[in-house]
Amino acid sequence: MLKGKVAVITGGTRGIGNAIAKKYAENGANLAIIATKDNEKAQAAIEELKKNGTDVKLYLCDIKNADQVTSVSEEILADFGGVDIVVNNAGITRDNLLPGLSIADIDDVIDINLKGTMYVTRSFIRNFIKRKGGNIINISSVVGLMGNKGQANYAASKAGIVGFTKTVAKEYGRKNIRCNAIAPGYIATEMTAQLSEAQTEELKKQLPLARLGKPEDIAELALFLASDRSSYITGEVIKVDGGMYV
Ligand code: NDP
């Protein structure tokens, strides 16, 4: 479905981003993976992605640093000759009730989740306009739509992504650039592994589908949104949450 396309995926070495990267590579996409860590695990993930036979490169970049984003995006454009798809997946949590959130907890979450998404998108828009098309997929969260105790910083960052997504869809629809967001519920990754077994069990009870989601559940939608099969969908926020929002 993505043969010959070039996709940039932030946070593509593990978790949801890695599941999306796998799905894209299996469908013929070349990948520019952005991450902060170049450890053994990250290298193994990149080697695994390469097995699909497409071009896969790892770029080290802290997306909250605008200068790093600018230089890495220029490097990616030079290496691949252009980009078709950007997936803004990288994100962090720093949870606490509002008085317990430090200034750094607030700044880091907003800087990485929201500003990082804006920096990365902004750095590829001109290329999309030049190529007369492009596709942006932002990973928000159901928490950004419904709020969550202990996640004021995170929920605000994910709600910000919703406004950003809709605005980009409006600004660039005429240039054949689509922009959509996915709002996952609880997905089993290192991010949610911080929850205790009791917390996880309690959560499951509240979910109509009574289980946590898998990174692949998000990757399936990310593939559909990146492909021409969704060519008339833009400005949407689609939940993949086991019914959590219901
Ligand atoms: P993980 O913690 O498993 O992975 C986070 C990824 O983001 C890593 O690849 C990491 O790369 C990257 N990353 C973090 N900070 C930066 C940074 N400053 N610059 C570049 N890359 C960075 O998270 P998940 O896979 O669970 O989450 C992925 C996305 O999905 C996030 O945006 C998250 O908010 C969202 N989400 C997750 C849910 C869940 O239940 N898991 C639910 C709803 C939304 P590295 O290791 O190199 O630092």
Notes on the protein architecture:
- There is one protein chain.
- This protein has 246 residues and is of the alpha/beta class.
- The chain has a single domain (6-240), classed as 3-Layer(aba) Sandwich (Rossmann fold).
- Helix content is 46%, strand content 15%.
- It has helices at 15-26, 40-50, 66-80, 103-131, 143-146, 152-172, 197-206, 215-226; strands at residues 6-10, 30-35, 56-60, 85-88, 134-139, 177-184, 237-240.
- It has a 7-stranded parallel β-sheet with strand order 3-2-1-4-5-6-7, with helices on both faces.
- The protein is globular.
- It starts with 5 loop residues before the first strand and ends in a 6-residue tail after the last strand.
- It binds NADPH dihydro-nicotinamide-adenine-dinucleotide phosphate.
- NADPH dihydro-nicotinamide-adenine-dinucleotide phosphate is lined by residues 10-11, 13-17, 34-37, 62-64, 89-92, 112, 139, 141, 184, 186-187, 189-192.
- The site of NADPH dihydro-nicotinamide-adenine-dinucleotide phosphate has 28 residues, from helix 1 and strand 2.
- NADP(+) binds at residues 11-14, 89, 154-158, 187.
- Homotetramer.
- Keywords: Fatty acid biosynthesis, Fatty acid metabolism, Lipid biosynthesis, Lipid metabolism, NADP, Oxidoreductase.
- Belongs to the short-chain dehydrogenases/reductases (SDR) family.
- Residues 5-185 form the Ketoreductase domain.
